[in-house]
Write a structure and sequence with these properties.
Distance between the termini: 30 Å
Structural class: alpha/beta
Radius of gyration: 22 Å
Shape: elongated
Strand content: 5-15%
Strand order of the largest sheet: 2-3-4-1-5
Mean pLDDT: 86
Number of strands: 5
Low-confidence stretches: 161-165
Length: 284
């Protein structure tokens, strides 16, 4: 499954104890978006501490197969989502969930809410119970009725086509070595930039490959840390970083995002690499 930044933000909010009660997700692939949401729901509903290989309960299976009673999907009947569907949802969620921590509703193609069904949602959104979470999924947030959109936290959940998303594997290897170099030998990292990395990078595309790979590695380590899942064998040389707390990885990811944004107007490779070393060291 291609993980998204929206999933990362949801997990971060949950672990920081500041999870909103209603989210509007704009996406170009609703099925992948829902797959990521199901993964998120496994983590937050786990009665103990989530592990991908856990066999102690049937909760993950119920979520994966969409058979959990406290997980309700609402989709358009013909071309609209009707008021009666929302009334039924509200009736189902009058009581606390039995098998999970949250009652969760997922509104697919939320732009199909009409004025009547949207108005029926309002009190549900405005005065939520602590145990209710809602997700509105759409391909264009501007098509969502204002009264609903303004009451949700908006997340963008976009996926690249495989031909565009694919990064040559060599760049993951380069990024792994670079993270290790910066983390354990800071004093030599600037020389590493000049003598090793700078000669390897010939254009903006390769610089993007490097920093997107760095971001993906920190993201994977972050998820490994907060979910107690197994570390990928290819990351073994970075196992020592798992001693860090989750905020370490979040800070690193936010910093790498800044650098990726900077690549839109600054293509001085060595300056960017040196910034990664010098400013990134303060995030340790």
């Amino acid at each position: 499954m291609q993980e998204s930044q929206a999933l990362q933000k949801l997990l971060t909010s949950y672990h920081e104890g500041c999870l909103a009660h209603a989210f509007l997700l704009e996406t170009n692939d609703q099925e992948k978006c829902i797959e990521n949401l199901l993964q998120f729901l496994k983590v937050i509903n786990c009665p103990q501490e989530f592990r991908e290989d856990c066999t102690e309960c049937n909760l993950c299976h119920l979520i994966e197969t969409r058979n959990l009673p406290s997980l309700v999907f609402v989709s358009p009947e013909t071309t609209t989502i009707k008021k009666e569907q929302i009334l039924e949802l509200k009736h189902l969620f009058q009581t606390k969930p039995t098998f999970s921590k949250y009652n969760v509703y997922i509104i697919e193609n939320a732009e199909c809410l009409n004025a009547s069904s949207a108005n029926t949602m309002l009190k549900f959104i405005e005065e939520p119970e602590d145990f209710i979470l809602g997700f509105f999924i759409t391909n264009n947030k501007e098509n969502i009725i204002d009264t609903v959109r303004s009451r949700c936290q908006i997340l963008l959940d976009y996926y690249s086509g495989e031909e565009n998303h694919s990064i040559p594997k060599i760049w993951q290897s380069i990024a792994l070595n670079y993270i290790k170099e910066v983390s354990v030998a800071f004093d030599a990292a600037l020389l590493y930039n000049k003598d090793v990395l700078n000669p390897l990078i010939h254009d903006r595309k390769e610089l993007l490959y490097l920093f997107q790979s760095i971001f993906d590695i920190y993201h994977s380590l972050y998820l490994c840390k907060i979910t107690n899942s197994s570390l990928d064998d290819s990351f073994e040389d970075l196992r020592f970083l798992l001693k860090k707390n989750p905020d370490y990885f979040l800070n690193k990811m936010n910093f790498v995002r800044e650098i990726l944004d900077e690549l839109n107007f600054n293509l001085n490779t060595l300056l960017i690499l040196d910034r990664f070393v010098l400013e990134g060291s303060d995030l340790s």
